[in-house]
Each structure stands twice: as C-alpha cells, then as structure tokens.
C-alpha cells in the first residue's frame, strides 16, 4: 500500500492569539508551532497502522517553508517512511491543495489521509479540494477506517448519529477523533528520523491564490459575568428569559 | 447571474441550517441585485419544498435521482456545479455542515471558484468581495477576500436568523441533470435514540468531572428535559466512559454554537472553550469561584451543583407551567 498523509503546521493549542499591529497577520512571536493534531494523532497513526498490517510505505507531504522542518521530522520520528516538503508559503487553501495535487497526481497513492481541519484557520477546505483536483472519492470527518480486500469501510458523523459507508480506493479521507490513538515518538524513532529522506521540491508554477486573508481582529470583549445567588435560581431563569431571551 | 443555495435535506426535511442558508443567500442576492435560487438534491424531494420561497428563494430547483440517495461528495458536488453553470449562478451558498464541508472545496475547484468557508456575516462589496469568518476556534475573526468570478460561501450555523416572509410559496422545478454513479454506499446508520441531537440544539446542558460519576447524570438529563435541550460533556467524562463520545464538545470533539450553553461542574479549560465559546449565552455552575470558565460566562453561579441544579430544575419547571 502506498499512503500519503498531508500534514500541516499550526500554533500550539495553548498559544496566545494575537495579530500584528496593522491586523494583517498572525503574530508568531513567542508562539510554539506543532503538527496539526488531527494530522498527527489520527491521520498519520492510522496510516502507520495500515502499513503495519498490509505492508507498504507512508509518505508525508507538507506545503511550507523550512520553518516546518521540525514538524516534518516529528512525522518521520513517529514512523513515516518518507517526507516531501513542497517549498512554498501555504498562502491559502486553494494554493495548498493545488500544490499537493501537483505532487500527488503522478504518484498514484492508494489512500490519501488528511486531518478534518487545521486548528488555526478551521477551514476544512484542503482535503475536499485535493479530492476534486485528483478526481477521487472523498469521505470527510471519518471517525474510523477499516480495509478489507480493496474495500474501505468508514464511519462518519451525521445529524444525531453516525453512518458507516463503504467504497473502493483510491480515495481521500479526512480524519476526526476516534480514528486512532496518539503515538509518542520514542528515542529510536527520533534517531531513525534523522536518516530518513526529507525531500524538498520546488512549488508547481503558475498557481495563484483565489482567496486572501486581508485582516484579523479579536472578537469584541465579553462583558463581565453576572453572578447569581445560588439560593435564587428563579432569578437565573428570569434573566435567561427576559434579558438574554434564550429560553 | 444569480445566487444558488444548496438546500440540504436531512431525514427528508429541510433543517434550520438550510433555512438560514436560503435567508442568507437571498440577502446576498439583494445586495447584488440578482435572484436567489435554491437547489435540492436527493432520492426524493421534501413535500414542502416550495416553502423555501418564504425564506427568500425566487425559484427552487430539484434533482431527484437514486444516485443521490447516499451522500457521495463527488456526485453531489458535480451536480451542484452543473446546476450553477446551467442557471448562471455566480455565488453558491452552502451550510457549513458536515456535508457542506465535504462539498465546498470540491465545488470551488470544479468551478475554478474562490471558497469562503464558515463565514458568519454578509459580504462587504465596497472593496472587492470580502467576507468574515471566525478563526482560531472563535478566538479571532478573519476577513478574507475572494478573488474569482464565482464564489462559494459556506455559512456557519446560527450566524443569521432564518426569516420566513421574504417571499411566497413556489413550485419545485425539476432540473435536467443526470448525477454520476456514486462510489460511496451507506451500509449502516446508527441514530442516537430520543433526545435532541447535539449539533442542531438551541440549548445545551453539559456536565464535567464535577458530577463525580455517571450515576449523577440524571441531574444533567432532567435539566435538559425541562429546557428541551441536548446534553453534552467534557472530554474526560467521555474518556472515562461516563458518557458516549458523540457528546464530547471542545477542540477534539464537537464544536457547537447554541443559543444557550449551561456548563455544570466543568472547569473551562481552553480546549473545552474552543468548542463552545461561540454559544450566544453561557451559564456556568461551579463551586470554585476561580474556575476559568467564569471568565467566558455571561451568568455564573458559584455553588455546589448537587444543590444548585435541583433548584434550577424546579425553577425552570415552575416557569414553564
Ligand atoms: C490537546 C488537548 C485537547 C483537549 N480537548 C478537549 C476537548 O475537546 N474537550 C474538553 O472538554 N477537554 C479537552 N481537553 C482536556 C481539557 O484540557 C481539560 O482537562 C478538561 O476539559 C477538563 O474537564 P472537566 O472540566 O470536566 O474536569 P476538571 O478540570 O476536573 O473540572 C471539574 C470542575 O468541576 C468543579 N466541581 C467539582 N465538584 C463540584 C461540585 N460539587 N459543584 C460544582 N462544581 C464542582 C471543579 O471546581 C472543577 O472546576 C483537551 C486537552 C488537551 C491537552
Ligand atoms: N500546508 C499544508 N501542507 C500539507 N497539508 C495541509 C496543509 N494545510 C492543510 N493541509 C491538510 O488539510 C487538512 C485540513 O486543512 P484546512 O483545510 O486548512 O482546514 C489538514 O488537516 C492537513 O491534512
């Protein structure tokens, strides 16, 4: 099996969210960057489990500059066999998806795994775009993925429940919580990662972004909490009804 | 030129998110001085499809076909893109639901369009086509510019109130599109029995580790019942098996945006807040006055939940009789 896992780099979940003075960009000063948890914990680990069962290779691909190399090395330390970095600033989802597609198309992967969304821009855009550019079926937000013969069976959430779907590969899947359990890289993995290939390839030419972030702002400050006497729940119900108008 | 809204059918009906999307689509259409059209896809059409006219659709197109019975993002996206081309739509509106998320990127690539996903307000047309969307799990708001002739917008739930006097009831018009053969087959559906489904709930009552154990969950359930609410929980509660995983909200669970979120015995860790801080009103019940959740709350009750919640249940019941 030849599996591609698309990994992205995001600010740590604890990072302070702030922007440059003119509001045009995320303020990276003092921020620790990590692999997007959906990519690391679920997509990558499930890919490794499939490889362990069926044999094959797991390739990770990332669109980004050299600042991402530590994140890519971590994917290798967890167990990916090869890594490819497409050397370009991931300006927008459409740009990123087109770059990934240009790389993936001639490689004919059996399975392409992404995370369900990046935890910074929360777009959930790249995986569907990639699937369309490669003309492959796509199952999003999958909570489990099994393979039997050439048939994949996946669970995905629906309003008020989950449904199981079956289809044949090749396909693109975006991974949600439940698909696998996080793996912590061990010393051996970290040492091995140093010897694994991290190939840097130039970005495909002529790809233009169709969307641009022009401005960021923090949401309006919340007014301070109104405390209510624990003995007087009638007052809370009254406020929810008359002031907040939510019940 | 027109605005085309994907009218998602769930369990044979148009849900609130579809009504929101049509209302939103109509407002965008008014800004552009064009018509708003709705498009329903499925094996069967809802009996009341024409009612989407009330929410602002000037026309409602339907494609009913066996191939649309199970949701296959490729088949759906190609049908929507074909409908957009046939009807001359320059703006396509989708709900930012699971399906909308699976479709947005596909449709945008199919039509060489620009995608704005999870937008929460009307576009600003004064300098190109700009829309706002929450980012960093609601901790910031981004303005994005869409630089293509065709735009795809997916609308964050609960961002706009559905209106029902923007037009009149109309008849469904079949559209001649032959959907592709799907690759995806739905083989099993597990529905949560009874209760209000969490993703769509207007009111959510949520419990954390402060409840001490699953045997105390009747407090959460009784309050939810009295309010017609759905129930949710923090991650350790689901991880300990006190509650099913589909109830877990937060960064690694569901992100919800109800009108009212009542957090009981939950500390308010940043990863929990990421899934709930877009709720319109937040009530926090916690015995620790220093619990971080109070900083994100609109109303707070500092007290022992085992005393406060029964009182609250009585007060809600007294109000509704
Ligand atoms: C990467 C990552 C992702 C995560 N994702 C999520 C996520 O998606 N969702 C999530 O919820 N968590 C998530 N977590 C875990 C999160 O950090 C917290 O550990 C978790 O939310 C705490 O759950 P809790 O508030 O129920 O429990 P606790 O933190 O133990 O809080 C219990 C609260 O109950 C109060 N209490 C106790 N007894 C009573 C009483 N009798 N009356 C009133 N109040 C009482 C206490 O004062 C306390 O504030 C994540 C963590 C990490 C590192
Ligand atoms: N720069 C990138 N390089 C590789 N994969 C990416 C990149 N950005 C996003 N992805 C993939 O697309 C998924 C969803 O990202 P997004 O559409 O940005 O929410 C991520 O979880 C990754 O799997």
Describe the protein in words.
The complex is a heterodimer of chains A (247) and B (321). Chain A is of the alpha/beta class. Helix content of chain A is 27%, strand content 30%. Chain A contains 6 helices and 14 strands. Chain A has helices spanning 37-54, 69-78, 93-104, 126-133, 187-195, 233-242, and strands at residues 2-6, 9-11, 33-35, 57-64, 82-87, 111-115, 138-142, 144-148, 151-158, 161-168, 171-175, 198-202, 211-217, 226-227. Chain A has a 7-stranded parallel beta sheet, with helices on both faces. Chain A is globular and about 65 Å long. Chain B is built from 8 helices and 17 strands. The termini of chain B are far apart. With 321 residues, chain B is of the alpha/beta class. In chain B, helix 2 (73-87) packs across helix 3 (98-110) and helix 4 (218-227) runs parallel beside helix 8 (305-320). A 7-stranded parallel beta sheet of chain B has the order 7-10-6-1-4-5-11, sandwiched between helices. In chain B, strands 14-13-15-16-17 form a 5-stranded parallel beta sheet. A two-stranded antiparallel sheet of chain B has the order 2-3. Helix content of chain B is 27%, strand content 27%. At the A-B interface, helix 3, helix 4, strand 7, strand 9 and strand 10 of A face helix 2, helix 3, strand 7, strand 8 and strand 9 of B. The structure holds flavin-adenine dinucleotide (FAD) and adenosine monophosphate (AMP).
What is the strand content of chain B? Answer: 25-35%
Q: List segments of chain B where confidence is low: pLDDT < 50 over at least 5 consecutive residues.
A: none
How are the strands of the biggest sheet of chain A laid out side by side?
7-11-6-1-4-5-12
Low-confidence stretches of chain A: none
Radius of gyration of chain A: 21 Å
What oligomeric assembly is this protein in?
Answer: heterodimer
Beta-strand segment tally of chain A: 14
What small molecules does this complex bind? flavin-adenine dinucleotide, adenosine monophosphate
Shape by Cα distribution of chain B: elongated
User: Given the structure, what is the number of helices of chain B?
Assistant: 8
How many helices of chain A? The count is 6
Please identify the structural class of chain A as seen in this structure. alpha/beta
Percentage of residues in strands of chain A: 25-35%
Largest sheet of chain A: 7 strands, parallel
Structural class designation of chain B: alpha/beta
């Amino acid at each position: 099996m030849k599996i591609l896992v698309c990994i992205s780099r995001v600010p740590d979940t604890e990072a302070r969210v702030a922007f440059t003075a003119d509001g045009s960009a995320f303020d990276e000063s003092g921020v620790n960057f990590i692999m997007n948890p959906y990519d690391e914990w679920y997509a990558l680990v499930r890919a490794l489990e499939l490889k362990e069962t069926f044999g094959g290779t797991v390739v990770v691909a990332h669109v980004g500059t050299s600042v991402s190399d530590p994140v890519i090395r971590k994917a290798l330390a967890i167990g990916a066999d090869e890594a490819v970095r497409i050397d370009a600033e991931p300006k927008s989802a459409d740009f990123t998806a087109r770059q990934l597609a240009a790389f993936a198309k001639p490689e004919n992967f059996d399975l392409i795994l992404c995370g369900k969304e990046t935890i910074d821009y929360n777009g959930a855009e790249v995986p569907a775009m990639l699937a369309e550019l490669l003309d492959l079926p796509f199952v999003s937000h999958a909570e489990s993925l099994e393979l039997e013969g050439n048939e994949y069976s996946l669970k995905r959430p629906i309003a008020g429940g989950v449904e199981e779907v079956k289809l044949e590969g090749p396909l693109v899947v975006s991974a949600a919580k439940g698909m696998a359990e996080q793996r912590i890289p061990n010393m051996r993995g970290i040492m091995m990662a140093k010897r694994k290939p991290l190939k840097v390839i130039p970005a495909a030419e002529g790809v233009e972004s169709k969307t641009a972030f022009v401005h960021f702002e923090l949401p309006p400050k919340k007014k301070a909490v109104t405390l209510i006497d624990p003995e007087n729940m009638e007052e809370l119900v009254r406020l929810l009804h008359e002031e907040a108008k939510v019940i | 030129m027109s605005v085309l809204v994907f009218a998602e059918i769930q369990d044979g009906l148009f849900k609130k998110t579809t009504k929101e999307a049509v209302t939103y689509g109509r407002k965008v259409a008014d800004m552009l001085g064009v018509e708003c059209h709705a498009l329903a896809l499925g094996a069967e059409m809802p009996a009341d499809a024409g009612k989407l006219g009330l929410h602002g659709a000037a026309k409602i197109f339907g494609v009913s076909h066996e191939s649309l019975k199970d949701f296959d993002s490729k088949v759906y996206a190609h049908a929507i893109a074909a409908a957009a081309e046939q009807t001359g739509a320059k703006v396509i509106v989708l709900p930012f639901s699971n399906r909308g998320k699976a479709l947005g990127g596909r449709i945008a690539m199919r039509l060489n369009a620009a995608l704005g996903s999870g937008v929460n307000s009307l576009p600003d047309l004064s300098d190109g086509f700009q829309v706002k969307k929450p980012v960093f799990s609601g901790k910031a708001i981004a303005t994005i510019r869409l630089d293509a002739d065709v735009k795809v917008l997916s609308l964050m739930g609960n961002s706009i109130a559905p209106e029902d006097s923007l037009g009149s009831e109309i008849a469904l018009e079949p559209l001649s599109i032959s959907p592709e053969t799907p690759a995806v087959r739905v083989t099993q559906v597990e529905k949560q029995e009874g209760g209000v489904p969490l993703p769509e709930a207007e009111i959510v009552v949520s419990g954390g580790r402060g409840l001490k154990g699953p045997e105390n969950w009747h407090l959460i359930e009784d309050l939810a019942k009295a309010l017609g609410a759905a129930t949710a929980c923090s991650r350790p509660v689901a991880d300990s098996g006190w509650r099913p995983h589909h109830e877990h909200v937060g960064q690694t669970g569901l992100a919800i945006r109800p009108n009212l979120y009542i957090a009981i015995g939950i500390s308010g860790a940043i990863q929990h807040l990421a899934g709930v801080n877009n709720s319109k009103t937040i009530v926090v019940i916690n015995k620790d006055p220093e619990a971080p959740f109070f900083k994100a709350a609109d109303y707070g009750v500092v007290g022992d939940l085992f005393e406060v919640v029964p009182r609250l249940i009585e007060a809600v019941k007294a109000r509704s009789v």
